[in-house]
Amino acid sequence: MVLALMGPYAQSNSDAVSLPFSAAPYRTGERLTYNVSFSNFISAAHVELQVGARGVFFGREGIQLRGHVETTGVVYAALFAINNDYVTYVDPATGLPFHSQQVVREATRTSDTARAFNEPAGAAAIPSKLRNGEIPGTYDFLSAIYRLRALPLAEGSTYYMSVRGETEAYQAEVKVTGSQTIKTTVGSFNTLVSQVHVTNNSRGNNYRIRIFFSDDERHVPVLITARIAAGELRAELAGSEFVKPVA
Question: How far is CA 113 from CA 71, 139, 140, 147, 218, in A?
């Protein structure tokens, strides 16, 4: 979601070890809202993440994830007019996406696209060879956030994953570097600090993305920060609730 606003292995192979997968972040009805500040703009955008219904989608069992990104106020009127919607369907056992839809509404273009990931289901998605800490398969940005939340996120651990954007593929290395208390408008949270490195793309790596996950079962992203040329981008948790899922 933050990358949408930004416009955007040194280890040897070993026998595959299935990384732990927590179902807690995929509880249907969870809705997270964020206020995004950018440079000198205290409220530049609004982001919403929601776990929709669980059921049969496109011929297979899945969970629907929804995302919405919208710039607001002066930023929308004068700088970046963005009003985008994202829907991704993931396998309940692995978090791997198998279908996604994206509606982009920007000042210079409007598009409505869909993509099939053709990822195998369940245990068949785990290949025979993986590096320690490597997450198999390819994710989009929305499903990647939830898959990271489903990991143990132990301090000192490192995880690797492949993430595909609209036109580029990214090899991400996520290091859990420590813990920190984060104060927001909805309370204070003990968080696990994760540093994201993009190993195959220097432009993406220069964003210096950090994600602060709540230190509990749900691993809610409490704060996401990134550096861009015009200043710091901060997406801070503004609300967390459970609502009736919309199919």
Answer: 21, 16, 13, 23, 30
**φ, ψ of residue 170 in degrees (nearest 5):** -120, 135
For residues 50 and 102, give the distance between their C-alpha atoms in angstroms, rounded to a whole number. 15
Q: Report residue 6 as tokens.
A: 């930004």
What contacts 95, CB < 8 A, 6 or more positions away?
21, 26, 139, 143, 146, 147, 150
Q: In the chain, how long is the greatest CA-to-CA distance?
A: 53
CB atoms within 10 A of CB 184: 16
CA distances from 44 to 5, 81, 84, 220, 226 (A): 10, 11, 15, 21, 14
CA distance 62 to 119: 12
Burial status of residue 90 (CB atoms within 10 A of its CB: 0-12, 13-18, 19 or more): buried
- Whole-model pTM: value is 0.87
pLDDT tens track of the chain, all 247 residues? Answer: 555 555 432 232 333 346 899 999 999 999 999 999 988 899 999 999 999 999 999 999 999 999 999 999 888 877 888 999 999 999 999 999 999 999 988 878 888 999 999 766 655 555 556 788 999 999 999 999 999 999 999 999 999 999 998 888 999 999 999 999 999 999 999 999 999 999 998 888 999 999 999 999 999 999 999 998 878 999 999 999 999 876 5
